[in-house]
Write a structure and sequence with these properties.
The protein has ten helices and 16 strands. The chain folds into three domains: 3-60, Arc Repressor Mutant, subunit A; 67-273, BirA Bifunctional Protein, domain 2, CATH 3.30.930.10; 281-323, SH3 type barrels, CATH 2.30.30.100. It is of the alpha+beta class. The chain is globular. The protein binds biotin. The site of biotin (BTN) has 21 residues, from helix 5, strand 5, strand 7, strand 10 and strand 11.
Length: 326
């Protein structure tokens, strides 16, 4: 039995329930095999209603991304205009990096329905289940020194935050450097990986994961306390194509402003959207844990933190901890 045959049966029976027994008879397979295929389809985003007495019926199919549904909302010149829409990949970062090495144009986007080994910052993984999120990597070729890369990370967070606030109406803020939070829970992550030559950026692969329609059951238990999706936060599902296009529109226009005017406009927007400033916190740095109050961004993209003795230090790489009571 293949999943197509099983799906055809459920589609033909519409709102009617099909018992496991009826399906196994029709397709000449065991009931366990039927049950296993249904589990597989559920993992792929199909929703079934199960009734002990009546069997199963198909409630909804996953809304899969299409080039047309994204292009319909796209107002960019380059971002997402060359689009590789993939089903299951290890990580979109790897595919985009290969394309970048081969010389693909700026704005090339790799978008996958599922990542089997999605990468997060600091060597962590990234939960990327099928058909429920936006797992994407964009190729950038800014004519800038590598020292500008942190600014581009912050720029990406600003564009994403603005797009998501507009599309969802949720009160979303940026936790330094680039996590988007709703009520303290992380909704998305950004990972920029760059290749350089003589201190200049050759290309950047900007990876963005947006947890759009994930349900609580899609997260491992230990993450539920810290992670959420737009669906969990808003209590409804969202059109992923619309969210992707809205973000790409915002991202490209801010990127153009940045290339023309520098970091100052991005810095202002980031500071206005940040939830990390003006509260004393513990910060883990490569040199150890320090306590201080983040007061804003430095022109370089570093976070400026006022320490207890009044001195100001700039951090590029650190993990923000919990607020400290004084
Ligand atoms: C973080 O740790 O916050 C960064 C997460 C970045 C996840 C995205 S999903 C698309 C792209 N492909 C990956 O493997 N990682 C990034």
């Amino acid at each position: 039995m293949n999943t197509e045959e099983l799906l055809r049966l459920f589609e033909e029976s519409g709102d009617e329930f099909l018992s496991g027994e009826a399906v196994s008879r029709e397709l000449e397979v065991s009931r366990t095999a039927v049950w296993k295929q249904i589990r597989k389809l559920e993992e792929a985003g199909f929703v079934f209603e199960a009734s002990r007495k009546r069997g199963y019926r198909l409630i909804s199919k996953p809304d899969l991304l299409t080039e047309e549904s994204i292009a319909a909302h796209l107002q960019t010149r380059e971002f997402g205009r060359r689009l590789l829409l993939m089903d299951k990949v290890d990580s979109t970062q790897n595919i985009a990096a290969k394309l970048a090495e081969q010389g693909t144009e700026e704005g090339t986007l790799v978008l996958a329905e599922q990542q089997l080994s999605g990468r997060g910052r600091m060597g962590r993984g990234w939960v990327s289940p099928y058909g429920k999120g936006l797992w994407m990597s964009l190729v950038l070729r800014p004519p800038l020194p590598v020292s500008s890369a942190p600014q581009l990370t912050l720029l990406t967070a600003v564009a994403l935050c603005r797009a998501l606030r507009l599309q969802t109406g949720l009160d979303i803020g940026i936790k330094w450097p680039n996590d988007l939070l709703h009520e303290g829970k992380k909704l998305s992550g950004i990972l920029l990986e760059s290749a350089a030559e003589d201190e200049r950026i050759r290309h950047i692969v900007a990876g963005v994961g947006i947890s759009v329609n994930l349900a609580e059951g899609d997260y491992p238990d230990e993450l539920l306390e810290r992670a959420a999706s737009l669906r969990i936060a808003a209590g409804r599902t969202f059109d992923r194509a619309l969210i992707a296009a809205a973000f790409l529109n915002e991202w490209e226009s801010l990127y153009k402003v940045y290339l023309a005017e520098g970091f100052a406009p991005v810095k202002l927007l980031w500071e206005a959207l940040s939830v990390s400033l003006h509260r004393k916190i513990a910060i883990s740095t490569p040199q150890g844990v320090i306590q201080g109050t983040p007061i804003g961004l430095h022109e370089s993209g570093a976070l400026q933190v006022e320490l207890e003795d009044g001195t100001i230090t700039a951090l590029f790489s650190a993990e923000m901890g919990e607020p400290v009571r004084s």
